[in-house]
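[job 0412] stage=fold_complex status=start
inputs:
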Amino acid sequence: MAENTTLFDYLNLFWFTVLPYIALFTFFLVTIQRYRGKGFTYSSLSSQFLENKVHFWAMVPFHYGILVVLGGHILGFLLPNQLLLWNSNPMRLYILEISGFVGGVFTLVGLINIIIRRLTDARTKMVTSAADWIVISVLLFQICTGLYTAIFHSWGSSWFAASMAPYLWSIVKFNPTIAYVTPLPLMVKLHIIGAFSIITLFPFTRLVHALVVPNPYLWRKRQVVRWHWDRKKIRTPEFKINK
Amino acid sequence: MDVRSQISMVFHLDKCIGCHTCSIACKNIWTDRKGTEYMWWNNVETKPGTGYPTRWEDQEKYKGGWEKLNGSIRLRSTGKSRIIPNIFHHPHQPGMDDYYEPWTYKYDELFTAPEGNDQPTARPISMVTGKYIDIEAGPNWDDDLSGSPVYAANDPNLKGLTEEQKMQLSAIERLVFFYFPRICNHCLNPSCVASCPSGALHKRGEDGIVLVDQERCRGWRSCIPACPYKKTYYNWQTGKSEKCILCFPRIETGQAPACFHSCVGRIRYLGVLLYDADKIEDVANLPSDELIDAHRDMILNPHDPEVIKAAKANGVHDSIIKSAQKSPVYKFVKEWGIALPPHIEYRTLPMLFYVPPMLPVMTSMDGNAKKNMCEGLFPDFEKSRVPMEFLANLFSGGNTGKVRYTLKKQMAVRQYRRAVTVGDIDMEAAKKMLVAADSSVEEAEGIYNLTSLCTFEERFVIPPANREEAIQMMQDPLEHKQSVGFGLLEDPERGA
Ligand code: SF4
Ligand code: SF4
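[job 0412] stage=fold_complex status=done
writing structure:
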């Protein structure tokens, strides 16, 4: 680093270079290790059984909202150029921005209902852990900074493609270039830090259920029959018990 | 022909005394853990009644089982296209209040209460929150028709009965009820399995037991609305579904399941049935009125050389074929045709069968005078207090002929045995009744023996354990008490 490095530079270095790598390594190592060692703990941990009404107003907006928002971010990351092209027409830009924003609002409404439900329903309280509150707080922080950004630093879908996507790719390619993000406004920076914090917390919390979403279900036959033994084989005279 | 073996069951309802011993036996072994307090893998209901969970038979509410649509069947609410959008909140999933909030009593207050004028009491506390609760419902709240204007009057099986018939059911002097013990039916076309997004629910090929793989279950909960009998349950502590495992660790070591073993009324029979798995889909697709017969036709004759050959070719062990030949279930269901599946119209092809109860009226009050309701010694079951339609709604998809057939045969057997033992009935007349009931003297003796004199070994014909194909038999059940089932390599701890 140059001589005139300030504390500020060190901080930038930590938040945008060190933290992302901590986050990614923790994410991959711990999720895999947890799946192998404690696969039993991978569950949605649904509490619909305990409280069946507010649950709807919490879970449905939250999950659909976050799917839209997350989908938008992933799209911007994977196809930045196509996104810019799409946004070159103002009409299409508005459509994209508005759907993203509505998704964000849905997520927020859902999350607020989640908080209310977990605070007020006696039974649901019993299955709410400290980890759940940590997850809820980080998510709340993330949605608020996200919505703030969407309102006050408009056309995020375009500048995301122009500066965030290259930054994220530079991380993926092990050549972190923080110059893309250092000039960004504070709220956006907080949003990035929040994102990597969530990724770090992810493997230790109930968030892992997102990784076990059922997809083979869509392709498999209706009925599942498990044979523990190849019966035809063990009925042949050559077969010996070697257990 | 794809011959498979299935451990199947018969419950003889005329013998059930409603003692709930079966439920307690099950609870003590399997569901005395946190998160499972409310589960009764085995429960005994009073019929008419709303059951557990309340009104489970109301598929308008819970949308369980299969429905016929344009010539094929689909899950009523939990098929592929609908479980994905519903995965965050299942609109038809029963909540805890549809079962009940489990409770215990604060016994220590009996000892710590300060001295006073009143007896100390142990107040009920919730087993979920630990707080005091007012108990408003329980799994057997309507036992023996208690609260019948609320419970019995709301039984879904009363559909289609006339007002007069309903009155007849509940007239004060002529109250009628019977017990209906229920466990998972270990169906051939289980809707719980078909709905499971994770592929955790499965049917064991070797013996047909339906299980939830605890390690694969991710808590998507679709099996709970999907099972029309409401025999899959959600463990709110571990975030996994659980269900009756037919005590497979006991079965694999040649012992009867705990509820069977402990049954006081000896109403339970267990044995192997051989069936043709190729037919499952076609049968489940048939029009409603053909289901009972077609379901029965899938069950193969274990004495038929062709069947034996096909079974052997499929790897079914000789010992299993031998126990299939001695199976009491085969006798009740196939040979005698007096056991019927519950709610066949759900199309899951249940493998637990019921011998419908006879609820005869002997006498009735006519003003102040006692009136004999029957001419001979035994009453006419057509004049039974419980309308035939009610039994038919339960056991034959509304087809009263099927229920009538089983009752007629049971009645003929009674007449015949009376003629043998007491002799106050004309033997010729009794034999005529047998013939009219599509039976014979040999068959009547068989039914009588297996109903009244049956030994333990006759009721439970479990194939001897074949070590080379045992699945879990080497595990000690007691070691796993308080944990989740078998084969887990880690503690069933709740995730963060
Ligand atoms: S009764 Fe049938 S559908 Fe219900 S849990 Fe058992 S096997 Fe599954
Ligand atoms: S133990 Fe037997 S007799 Fe008693 S309630 Fe259960 S099934 Fe009926």
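[job 0412] summary: Residues 2-215 of chain A form a domain with the Fumarate Reductase Cytochrome B subunit fold (CATH 1.20.950.20).
[job 0412] exit 0
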